[in-house]
């Protein structure tokens, strides 16, 4: 029996000429775990909005064909009625919070359904405990980190009795360990309740680890694939449509090994069949250490910080240096203090103790405006940065504030839009873009003013792999020109591929500083910082390889070489 059915379904937003979804024919069965994947702008979120009723009640447009959700037509019903059947975690958590406190927000579903107060309190405490956020029950949601907000959203959906649960990019802001726990929790909900679970996510490796039933691949508003994970991984469709294959799959294919459906390669343990081919490839590896200059550009000395007097330190005796031309990844658990540290570097917050030095001289008394000339900060949530209605105007905003003439503004803006893959959208309203595309707009607006240091807070969150590679290729060009990059991220694959160094934070303290290939072998550090050893490392364990970090480094290097999309 179908939970959701689309018949010759098409949808066009009122402000666009072209249809975003085109002739969709799809049946999603009751009790299935389904992954919907596709490049940015492919129509994934639009499909989700058609299911949960946000289309047409929040996003208006033209509908053709038929959609049925648990026996009702969402667009002919009401948003309130649809919410009884479909529970949703939105990609943009800030747009979903309704309560003043975490507890009030999680209780929203209970209040809407007149649940008795004692039962409500017990239920809220139970789900917050499940996601590890009970200690924040009285905190304001907006004061939390991106990952903590995601956990609160997860708690909210756990209170729902909806038969269909829809998760739009649920892993976007979570640290690696929390991502693993979140996906396990989603799978557990399905296994325990037999509810239909639909996950829209770029990070398919984390999703497929939980034995999903189906993968639906969407591109340009059309369904390109609908089948099992094992069938999909045996093909090259993910790469073709700009989605990253699991790391261990990439490594196997780099060894010119043929993968078949019968190999059931969605289970990493089954890679043992390919052990000989991968070890032979690894033995050809000869690691060469790259020589880098060590001129200190930015120095952080004994930084201590807390938001309130009675609060414990968010940052405690944090010290490290950043060298000119480096790309440094800042890693750590949700709430470890990563984003707070970056706010101190930019002057948004002022440390209680310690000093920040630029080229050996303190900048602690510099204004935010003065620091912005050398340090550009791209925030985690694009909606916290965007102030203009049109894309061109948003990217031009800082330049115009600096009194550039309009000809120079146009030259710089168009150059950056091309580099960030946004040129064709230059005359679009920002509201027409996906979350990932908005992220690129904010990055473009910072790059336009050409700072010496760029801080990127989760730069690739919500972006497909093709855009990820194109953008990081551009970041490498910026870096090669001498610009220093500081990157806050939960994406271990991104850090392994691109960072020169990793600085690991936990509970406001630096617990690791060095090559990430070495750091991932430190089990204590990995567990304390809620990191996750990549699937390549797990495969090295399965193969009983002693030099696991070197094994990972070898195949990461091979993946960086000869990257081509069909």
TrEMBL record:
One of its GO terms (molecular function) is ATP binding. Residues 4-245, 298-532 form the ABC transporter domain. SUPFAM superfamilies: P-loop containing nucleoside triphosphate hydrolases. Keywords: ATP-binding, Cell membrane, Membrane, Nucleotide-binding, Repeat, Translocase, Transport. Pfam families: ABC_tran, DUF3744. InterPro entries: AAA+_ATPase, ABC_Co_transporter, ABC_transporter-like_ATP-bd, ABC_transporter-like_CS, ABC_transpr_CbiO/EcfA_su, ECF_ABC_transporter_ATP-bd, P-loop_NTPase. The keyword Translocase applies. It comes from the Bacteria. The keyword Chloroplast does not apply. It is a peripheral membrane protein. It is found in: Cell membrane. NCBIfam families: PRK13648.1. Belongs to the ABC transporter superfamily. Probably part of an ABC transporter complex. Responsible for energy coupling to the transport system. This is ABC transporter ATP-binding protein.
